[in-house]
Structure formats: C-alpha cells, structure tokens
C-alpha cells in the first residue's frame, strides 16, 4: 500500500484521502470530538463538552462537519463528560442518523452521569438566578428526557468484539483509565486507525492497564494530556496522598478532595479505607463521599467486576471491595458534620459548581483546612486556578475570599505519562501519530520529544501531527484492489493452489463472472450464485413476442434454417408446431401467428431480433422478395442431391426411392452400408442415430448444395 501526505500527491483522487480533524481537544483538554473521513465514510470519535466553558460554547465545533446526516458511525471511548457530555445534543439536536457504540459499562453509567450533570447545571443556574433576580440567562443543552431518549440510539459493544457498519470494521480494547473505557481499532479499506481516547498503561487498585491491540495500526490518534511529564510510582504517590490527609486531620482541619463522581474517586476510596483500617487513631474521623451519583453507579461497579483487574476479581470471592468500612455516603449538605476534622470527597473534580465548590468556599478561609487536587485540571477551571496559590479566590456569586487553606496536587489521573506513551508507540510501530487531548504547550513538548527519540530509529519512522481544532490532517492511502474468486468459479480453476501455480500462467487465463463490490471487498462469482454469496436476488426475465404470420410451418422452418442452420422440432400438434433455434429460442407456429419465447440476455436478445426480422420478411404477402426452392429450383435441388449422394455413397444408396429423389416427397432414405440416414427434404436436415458422424457429413453436403443453388 502506497502512503503519501498532501504535499506529495496533489494529483490523487480525493477518495484516497484520509482526513482527521479535531472538532474539540485540538491543542486543548476538553470537548473531545474527532472527525475521521476516508473512502466516503465518516466517523465521529467521542463527543464531549468543555468543563471550563458554558452552554453552547462548551460544545465541540459540530457545525464544521460537512453533511452531518451522512455520518456513518459514532464511537464513545468512556463516560467522562469531556468525552460524552455532548452526545445527547449530537444525537437529538442535529441531523445525525448514525449508529453510536460504547461498551456496556460506559452505557450503564452514561445515563446517571449525564443526569447528574443536568441537575447540577440547573441548580447552579437557579442559584445565580436568585442572586441576579433577572431570570435564568442560559438554557441547558438538553434535558433529562433527552438523555433517556439518546439511549435508544446507543448500542453496546464487548471488548475484543469486532463489528462492521457500512464497511467500517471496528473493535474495542481495554484502555484502563476508568471502568469500561475503550480504545477503538478501526479499519477502512485495509487502513487501520487506533483511537486511544484517554488511556493508562499503569495498573491501579481496581483497573487493569491499557492493552496493546494485536494489529499494527497505520495511524495512531492518542492523547497528550501530560506531555513529557513522568508519573510518580503508584506506591510513592499513595504514601504522599495519605500523609497529606493525615497531616490535615492532625492539625484539626477538614480535608476536601474534589474528585469526579466515578473513576478516580473509587480509587481514592480504596486507598483511604485501607489506610483508616491500618490506623485506629483515625477511625473516629469520618470520611464522606458526597455523591448520590456514586451510590447509583456503585451497583454498576459491582456488576462489571469482570472488567477490573485480577486483584479485585480475586478479592470479590471473599468480600466486596466496594463495601467500605470507614467511608459513608453523604446524602446532602445538611447531613455533613464538619464541626471537627473530616475528609470529604465531593464532585465535580474541577470545582466548577456543585458541592465541591460550595465546600471549598466555606472552608478556604481557615488555614487548618486543606484541599488535595488529585486529578488533571483543565485551564480556566477553579481547581486549576487555586493551584497557583492566589491570595484571593472568587465565589460563584462574584465575591472575593482570602485563600488560607493549603492546596496540594497529587496526580492520580489515569492518563499516560511520557514514558508510557513512548513505550506504547514503540510496541505499535505506527507510521503516523496524531496528538489530541492536550494543552498546546504540553502537546508540543511531547511531539518534540517523540520526534527526537524516533528520528534515528530504523524500524519505526514516525510522522507526528498536532492539529488545532477544525484543522485537518490529510494523508493519502492508495492501495491495490484485489478480487476474490468464490464458488464454482474457484473450483473450475483446478486443484492447484495459487502458491503452486506460476503467475505467468494466470496472466494467460480468462475468467468470466460477475464482479460484486460490497463496501471495500471485491468478489467474482457466477450469476446463479449471487443469492448464495451476496444479499442480491437473481431474477430470470422471460420474454414472449407474437408476430403475425400467415405462412405454413414448412415455410417458417425453411427460413429458420436459413438464419440459424440447425432447427429442431420439439412438438408437433394439429394446430401448432414448436421449434428450438440456437438452443435457446422457442419458436411456435400457430395459425396466423408465430410466438417467439426466450430468456432475456444480450445474446438471446440478439438472436430473437434476428428471428423476428426473418419471420416478418417470410410473410406470403411479400413473397416476391423471398428466396424459394420450389419449382423450378427445388426440382433442380432434388436432382442434384440424388447425383451427389450416389457419387459419394454408391448407386445403391437410394435404392429405397428407386435411385432418384422425388421433389414431391417430404423425406428421403439413404442407405450407407448398414446405416440408415433419414433426410427431411423440407427442413433440409439429416438424422442417423446409429452413426452421428455420417449424419454430420450428410447434413453438411445438403447444406452446401442448398447454399450453392439458393437464389441470392
């Protein structure tokens, strides 16, 4: 397969162009949405919202999709809002009619997560409305009913299951990151593209690491969230985290851990519950998990234990690891006892709104308290802003509060670091890498580091792209078209395999069949086997025409012999005579009419036209134009025939007819040795069942004599 970039091949067909255009997550983190087009196929990879923006500004640039109604496929990698938050809008508020796929676990959590997003967003707008007394200024992107309706358009896919939609083959592989997260390997016309979504190559307490697909992709579309950063070892990271929590509790403070409702929160709770069990002095300090959403989704976690790592699968045989001893769910803000030290995990993780933002505003002015940011923070969010330790922070109402509490950052984010990304690329060996889902600086650093690492690599020759939003990466793949011979056609080529036969032999062979193209596969089969190997049905069209004709059957037979040579009578009744002409055409004489019947195909149609023409010309009303062997020509023909046969076979060959050919007779008997040949003088045919070769010789003699004596 020949692969060329845009700058190398301006003269190639656009159908060979593969285009990758970020509609979101191009040199940014948030609203992941990638448009992939190739060979007339159109795929949308993820459709999320930007956590740092509001309303329609948070959406991907969906308007940039040309003819969005012709989209073939939508694939969602996981349930985080920046990857699926705009999906209901895409499915219900646009003209998209494509099928959408995600894993079973992602689909199960999707509904709860988006319903919580709608509720939190509405509560925030309602709060701001009460402050301004001017009506809610923004409308939600969609309502809870839209989420339920969108589920009807989403189909689940299992890990390692291969599906095909409109000629696009795709399969899902474990991506780590969160429960149900998948990377998708897509194949279009032999070109393989791997989209990683968010992925982690490091196993944690409950999730397996991302797997390496068994097929080498031509193109890798991968995240660049952490650029060239290297993560701490898991043990060191957990030790630092528990130490920070312990320090805040020891000084009498309250510890706030903003976390997404699902994913990293479960990982942090497993760590805290184990740490509390090992430290009896902390067991009087409550740990709250403030998320109704998590309670609903915990059943999902318990259902999909099989999608987790061996540690969890082995542990669940004895006890459920997600039934925590020292962590309780916080039903509402009113149930929180924060009169003394406590630990609260609250969503959302970037504190745009919700309980995590409310608790932060209540606690940030006390220096005993502390905030631990345990995941990646997008630019423009409150969580990202407080990492720079400003003297004051704004509240949702616009007031400024002094920031006196401690703010610490520990990355529990399940994204790959530079080392993991580089090793992943080295195992896959793609030709092209397209970086998405990363802030501009981090993305450029990663691209530069990868370029330096692989510039002298003789095995893996990388070309790296860092597109902005709505900026296309265009590659051209020009491959050969190969057709597979199926069915009886394949059997007729003999028992020798293609490997055992020289290519030069095949070049001299011809093959006749129907070339069938389905999506990007080509097959050659016989027309009769179309229903066997395709979804096509075959239809036989039988045509019948009736031509006025007032002549006799013998006149019709004569003219049929003139045009076809060989004519066979298959049925002779009192009111009809039926002939077979050209082995395919049925001609039936009836009083004042000739019926011509045949199975339609190009050859038979041509024969039928010729027969129709000769029948029209053979009408007695135009007899002046007809050649005839009647008196005197027929008498001359019979005399010449007798002489010719006696010269060829001896004077006794016509003894049955007295040594002459009678022009008034219809038949003539020819005796040659022990063979008897019956000659039809009207049809000018010979028949010898005992000796076919003799029959053929006599037939040829009769035809040549007739041709020599017939008037031109």
From TrEMBL:
Keyword Nucleus attributed: yes
A GO biological process held by the record: mRNA 3'-end processing by stem-loop binding and cleavage
Start and end residues of each Metallo-beta-lactamase domain: 30-253
GO terms for MF: 5'-3' RNA exonuclease activity; RNA binding; RNA endonuclease activity
InterPro entries: Beta_Casp, CPSF73-100_C, MBL, Metallo-B-lactamas, RibonucZ/Hydroxyglut_hydro, RMMBL
Domain named Beta-Casp: residues: 265-386
Pfam family, one: Beta-Casp
Main location class: nucleus
Location relative to the cell: Nucleus
Keywords, sorted A to Z: Hydrolase, mRNA processing, Nuclease, Nucleus
Superkingdom classification of source: Eukaryota
Gene Ontology cellular-component terms listed: mRNA cleavage and polyadenylation specificity factor complex
Species in which this protein is naturally found: Taenia asiatica
Sequence ranges assigned to domain Pre-mRNA 3'-end-processing endonuclease polyadenylation factor C-term in this UniProt record: 507-712
Protein name: Cleavage and polyadenylation specificity factor subunit 3
């Amino acid at each position: 397969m020949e692969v060329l970039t845009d700058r190398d091949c301006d003269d190639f067909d656009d159908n060979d162009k593969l285009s990758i255009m970020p509609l979101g997550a191009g040199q940014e983190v948030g609203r992941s949405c990638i448009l992939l087009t190739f060979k007339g196929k159109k795929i949308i990879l993820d459709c999320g919202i930007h956590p740092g923006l509001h309303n329609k500004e948070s959406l991907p640039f969906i308007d940039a999709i040309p003819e969005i109604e012709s989209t073939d496929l939508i694939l969602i990698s996981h349930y985080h809002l920046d990857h699926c938050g705009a999906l209901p809008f895409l499915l219900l508020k646009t003209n998209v009619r494509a099928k959408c796929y995600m894993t079973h676990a992602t689909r199960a959590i999707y509904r709860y997560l988006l319903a919580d997003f709608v509720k939190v967003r509405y509560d925030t707008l309602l709060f701001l409305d009460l402050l301004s007394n001017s009506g809610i200024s923004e409308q939600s992107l969609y309502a809870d009913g839209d989420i339920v309706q969108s589920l009807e358009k989403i189909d689940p896919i299992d890990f390692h299951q291969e599906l095909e939609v409109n000629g696009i083959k795709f399969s899902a592989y474990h991506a780590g990151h969160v429960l149900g997260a998948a990377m998708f390997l897509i194949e279009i016309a032999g070109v393989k593209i791997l989209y990683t979504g968010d992925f982690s190559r490091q196993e944690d307490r409950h999730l397996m690491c991302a797997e390496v697909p068994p097929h080498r992709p031509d193109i890798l579309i991968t995240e660049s969230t952490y650029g060239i950063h290297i993560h701490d070892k898991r043990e060191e990271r957990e030790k630092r985290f528990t130490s920070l929590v312990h320090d805040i509790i020891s000084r009498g403070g309250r510890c706030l851990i903003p976390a997404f409702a699902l994913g990293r929160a479960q990982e942090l709770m497993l760590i805290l519950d184990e740490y509390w069990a090992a430290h009896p002095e902390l067991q009087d300090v409550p740990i709250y998990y403030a998320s109704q959403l998590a309670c609903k989704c915990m059943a999902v976690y318990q259902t999909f234990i099989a999608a987790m790592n061996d540690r969890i699968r082995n542990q669940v045989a004895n006890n459920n690891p997600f039934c925590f001893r020292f962590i309780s769910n916080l039903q509402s803000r009113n149930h929180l006892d924060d009169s003394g030290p406590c630990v609260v995990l609250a969503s959302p993780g970037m504190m745009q709104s919700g309980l995590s933002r409310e608790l932060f505003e209540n606690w940030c002015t006390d220096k005993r308290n502390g905030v631990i940011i345990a995941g990646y923070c997008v630019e423009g969010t409150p969580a990202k802003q407080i990492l720079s330790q400003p003297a004051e922070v704004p509240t949702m109402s616009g007031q400024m509060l002094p920031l006196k509490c401690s703010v610490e950052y520990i990355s529990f984010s399940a994204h790959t670091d530079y080392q993991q990304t580089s090793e992943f690329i080295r195992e896959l060996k793609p030709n092209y890498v397209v970086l998405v889902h990363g802030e501009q600086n981090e993305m450029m650093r990663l691209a530069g580091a990868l370029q330096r690492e692989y510039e002298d690599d003789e095995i893996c020759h990388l070309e790296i792209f860092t597109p902005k939003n709505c900026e296309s990466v265009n590659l051209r793949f020009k491959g050969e078209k190969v057709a597979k011979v199926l069915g009886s056609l394949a059997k007729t080529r003999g028992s020798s395999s293609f490997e055992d036969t020289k290519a030069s032999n095949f070049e001299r062979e011809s093959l006749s069949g129907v070339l069938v193209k389905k999506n990007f596969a080509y097959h050659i089969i016989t027309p009769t086997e179309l229903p066997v190997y395709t979804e096509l049905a075959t239809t036989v069209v039988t045509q019948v025409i009736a031509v006025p004709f007032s002549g006799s059957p013998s006149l019709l037979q004569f003219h049929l012999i003139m045009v076809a040579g060989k004519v066979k009578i298959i049925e002779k009744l009192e009111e009809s005579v039926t002939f077979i002409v050209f082995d395919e055409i049925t001609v039936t004489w009836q009083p004042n009419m000739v019926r011509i019947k045949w199975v339609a195909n190009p050859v038979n149609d041509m024969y039928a036209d010729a027969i129709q023409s000769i029948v029209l010309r053979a009408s007695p009303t135009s007899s002046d134009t007809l050649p005839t062997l009647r008196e005197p020509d027929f008498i001359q023909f019979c005399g010449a025939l007798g002489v010719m046969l006696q010269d060829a076979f001896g004077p006794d060959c016509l003894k049955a007819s007295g040594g002459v050919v009678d022009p008034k007779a219809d038949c003539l008997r020819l005796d040659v040795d022990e063979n008897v040949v019956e000659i039809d003088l009207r049809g000018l045919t010979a028949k010898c069942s005992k000796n076919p070769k003799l029959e053929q010789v006599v037939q040829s003699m009769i035809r040549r004599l007739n041709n020599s004596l017939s008037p031109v």
